[in-house]
Amino acid sequence: MYERLKTVGHEVCNCVRWKSMYYHSEPDLSVPRSNEDHYWCAITQRVLGPDGQVVDLENCGPSRACFKESF
Question: What is the Cα–Cα distance from 47 to 23, expressed in whole angstroms?
Fold first, then answer.
């Protein structure tokens, strides 16, 4: 997933979270790869950020009012 952060094209808000940030597992080749990613905001703990917009890598950038820079 961290490789995807490099290809987004802008800095991603430091508050974006996703499940694989908290655990690592070896891929199970018997399970088809899903293209669905599920993100949430560390501030709201929901799929909507403080501005009421959806949380995802593409939209959580410097143009949003609630954007937090990485440390």
Answer: 20
φ/ψ of 20, rounded to 5, equals -70, -5
17 neighbors 39 (Cβ within 8 angstroms): yes
Residue 30: both structure tokens together:
């018997």
Phi/psi class of residue 14: alpha, beta or left (left: φ > 0; alpha: ψ in -120 to 50)? alpha
Give CA torsion, residues 11, 58, 67, 47, to 10 deg.
-140
What is the spatial distance between Cα 17 and Cα 66, in angstroms, rounded to a whole number? 15
| Cα separation, 9 vs 60, whole angstroms | 11
pLDDT digit string, tens, across residues 6-41 = 788 899 999 999 877 777 777 778 877 665 678 999
pTM reported for the whole predicted model: 0.75
Six token digits for residue 25: 């597992």
